[in-house]
Amino acid sequence: MDYTEVTVSTTTQGAEIISDILMRLGASGTQILDRSDLPDPSKPTANWELMDQSVIDAMPVDVQVKAWFDEAGLNKIIGSLREQLSFLQGQGLGTLEVSLQGVKEEDWAENWKQYYKPFRLGRHMVVKPTWEPWDTQADDLIIEIDPGMAFGTGTHETTAMCVGLIEKYYQGGSLLDVGTGSGILAIAAARLGAKDIVAVDIDPDAVRVAKENVAHNGLSDAIDVRRGDLLQGLDRSFDFAVANILAPVICLLAAPLKAHLAPGGRFLCSGVIDEAEEEVTKALLDAGYAIDEIRHKGDWVAYACRC
Q: Mean pLDDT, to the nearest integer, of 53-66?
């Protein structure tokens, strides 16, 4: 089957918003091309991601969100997309220009691989696709994820901050991952020793991808991936919870989640753009959490809280 590749030009801040719109319109997958997600090879650090300069140079200057649709109902989909983008004009999310290009299935299935290389996440995690080699060091904890077209590969600032906070604060016990996406945070926790993890996502495709990633990493006995709407259907408490989702959802989730945390339990959250920091901080404090740490990376904020 051949596909139509739809590209929307935006900004780093708008990329996840546009990706979500495209997925809700029925995209077979999305890909975000953002130079800010890639490291500067001229400034290696202890957490240097392995990325050749030529790969960076080949990426577009503007942030681009690509999505793939088959031909069925395409005109209606593009019309709906343009209508939704019109409501975002003037909000600092870039030009929001839309372009279309035909692409063969085999090209669509492979073209993203050139952008995805192994990289360190936190102090000990190494995220790598199955097709890339890695010279494993003694304290490396390997997460293998073949990212496909959506649901998160670990390169975003919010994921990096969440993994760093899990490494710092997780001391054992049960763990809840709300909005698990690819399952990367649940897998990271399992690599740190968690054996009783529930990972929840409302998107059935995300659930499928997360289950595949969990199984591929040999962690099906430790991680129970479920489809669900936030806390709906959960009838137990947890020692630890993580949520890398959008700020309005964290504000909505904060109070009811507290009822699912054991006394002294911790809640780590991110997905918060810096403009929403004051709002999210207030929501967490109003819900009765003590905030032990707030981290910033790029335009994003992450929290470590406890009951």
A: 64
81: exposed, middle or buried (Cβ count in 10 Å: 0-12, 13-18, 19+): buried
- DSSP 3-state of 52: coil
Residue 205, SS3?
A: helix
Distance in Å from the first CA to the final CA of the chain:
52
| Domain-terminating residue out of 87, 113, 139 | 113
From residue 53, give the alpha-carbon distance in Å to each of 3, 62, 113, 118: 30, 17, 16, 15
| Residue 96 belongs to domain spanning | 2-113
Domain count, the chain: 2
Residue type, 47: N
Alpha-carbon span 73 to 78, nearest angstrom? 9
For the entire predicted model, the pTM comes to 0.64
CA 146 from centre of chain: 14
- Structure tokens that stand for 258 in this block: 């507290």
pLDDT, tens digit (0-9, with 9 covering 90-100), for 32-53: 888 665 544 444 443 333 334 4
